[in-house]
Amino acid sequence: MDYLMFCDHCGMPKPIVEHIMREYFWIANHVYCSNCEKPNQIPTYLQELSLEMHRDRYRDSE
Ligand SMILES: [Zn+2]
After folding, report:
1. Cα 23 to ligand 1 centre (Å)
2. Are strands 39-41 and 30-32 parallel, antiparallel or unpaired?
3. Gap between the Cα atoms of 48 and 42, Å rounded
4. Closest Cα partner for 28 from 36, 18, 40, 17?
5. pLDDT attached to residue 37
6. 45: Cβ–Cβ under 8 A, 6 or more apart, which residues?
7. How many Å apart are CA 25 and CA 29, to the nearest integer?
8. Predicted pLDDT of residue 31
9. 28, exposed or middle or buried, with CB in 10 Å at 0-12, 13-18, 19+?
10. CA of 37 to the centre of ligand 1 (A)
11. What pLDDT is stored for residue 29 in this prediction?
12. Distance from residue 22's CA to the centre of ligand 1 (Å)
């Protein structure tokens, strides 16, 4: 499942693929718009979801 964020600056939708969510969003604060290249704050609920996905994925290997 992919996720969608909308740029705060230009409104361009940005699709976020699952592996980016899982590997990147829980340690990142911002994501850059691919249209206007300005930083957008990653919402807390997406960071929490990302951390959950990451933990689920790596639980067995830690
Ligand atoms: Zn933008």
Report:
1. 22
2. antiparallel
3. 10
4. 40
5. 97
6. none
7. 7
8. 95
9. middle
10. 6
11. 94
12. 23
